[in-house]
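Give me structure tokens for this 115-residue protein.
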Amino acid sequence: MSESKAIVPKFRVRKGDIVKITTGKDKGKTGKVLEVDRSKQRVFVEKLNIIKRHMKPSQTHRQGGIIEREASVHVSNVMIVCKSCGKSSRAGIRRMEDGEKLRYCKKCNEIIDRG
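Here you go.
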């Protein structure tokens, strides 16, 4: 029997990108990506999708109580906000002549950033 490995997709969203939420309770809001979990296909966006956790006092949380923190959002529910045109759009990837890959905005055709 051959072992099957889970295929981890590549994302156009990276840590530090400004994204807009397209569905759910925070629809239309924008925020900065704090963390990307490629295995679960989810991203954590700063100050969006806030949940409340009831924590018992422990070594890490000495006081305990109700703690608010960001929950993850599925990567299909966010879109990158372009810096040049200011709109949320899909990102594409282009190869330059020297073989370098660049992400670009599909609406205004401007380069988002390197890599």
